[in-house]
Design brief:
Blueprint (H helix, E strand, L loop, with lengths): L3 H17 L6 H8 L3 H7 L4 H25 L4 H17 L2 H9 L10 H20 L4 H20 L10 H16 L2 H6 L2
């Protein structure tokens, strides 16, 4: 459970990264933004800047997963679950100021998600979120592989949008899901019946 101080430092980190990016954000910047001293940050997050960044990434991943889970939970069909998951993920990423600054202005080597071990954690968390929702519609033995595949496809299109497919748009997301995702997950007759 995050303390009030930790939450304040994480929020300050997000504001600083949105303003300057990861490379240019210093621990002094975060301390000033959070209204505390550097020593307080080191006590709250051993490891200094890398500890704060890791905690911030972890918190933001958990927040995003919770939002996607809530959106998918409200849906009654496989198609609607996939559309809700895709649009929620895409909008969260599009509207996340710190993430957009990093993606648009930092060299790939400085991006915290660029490391393969971190992307593996992102895929694992997103797959774990997707699995129970897919389990309502797919055979048990297919759920884990389907959850990982869907997660990789959606996140790839979210991180690297295609000009003709805007997953933030409900209509585009639904066309994408109907055309490419549903046919890969269900027999053709089952995919047609979920429309």
């Amino acid at each position: 459970m995050e303390s009030a101080l930790e939450a304040r430092i994480v929020e300050a980190t997000l504001r600083c990264v949105a303003r300057w990016g990861i490379a240019k954000t210093t621990l002094d910047d975060v301390a000033r933004e959070a209204g505390c001293g550097r020593a307080t940050i080191y006590r709250a997050f051993p490891g200094g800047k890398s500890g704060v960044l890791a905690a911030t990434l972890q918190r933001e991943m958990a927040r995003g997963i919770a939002a996607i889970d809530a959106a998918a939970r409200e849906q009654d069909t496989l198609e609607d679950v996939l559309v809700a998951g895709a649009t929620t993920a895409a909008r969260l990423m599009r509207d996340h100021a710190a993430l957009q600054t990093v993606l648009n202005h930092e060299p790939i080597a400085q991006q915290p998600l660029a490391a393969f071990d971190r992307m593996t954690k992102v895929y694992a968390a997103a797959s774990a979120c997707a699995a129970p929702h897919l389990a309502r519609f797919l055979d048990k033995e297919d759920v884990a592989a389907a959850a990982e595949w869907v997660t990789r496809v959606i996140l790839t299109y979210t991180f690297n949008p295609a000009p003709a497919t805007d997953l933030c748009d409900d209509g585009d997301a639904r066309r994408f899901v109907r055309t490419f995702v549903l046919p890969a997950l269900a027999p053709p007759s089952a995919a047609r019946s979920s429309r």
